[in-house]
Amino acid sequence: MRDTLISRADVVTGAPERYAKQLVPHLGRRTEFTTDGATSTAAIAGGTGVIEVGDGVLTLVAEAPDAETLARVQDVLGRHLERFGQRNELAVVWMTAPTAD
């Protein structure tokens, strides 16, 4: 049995709270987010998406059972954040976490 695939993008910005406040309600029109403190989580495209506000960084985490689903979760989170942050040239670069054998 294969472990869940996980990838993460740490997007450096001076306004992580503002971008999270845009991203969560926008995506929340199609899926329900659960927010606990600085972390919001939702089922997205067959996987899970996490948006976490940090000090000068907005962290996106994508989790999925397979590579195709992981790519869809990454696309949904990354594409929307880049669109909201276009003026400030935000770029989402995903790093895939290693899986246990």
Automatic annotation (TrEMBL):
What single Pfam family name could you report for this chain, choosing any that match?
Answer: DUF2218
> Superkingdom of the source?
Bacteria
Task: Supply the Gene3D superfamilies for this chain.
Answer: Alpha-D-phosphohexomutase, C-terminal domain (3.30.310.50)
Q: What protein is this chain from?
A: DUF2218 domain-containing protein
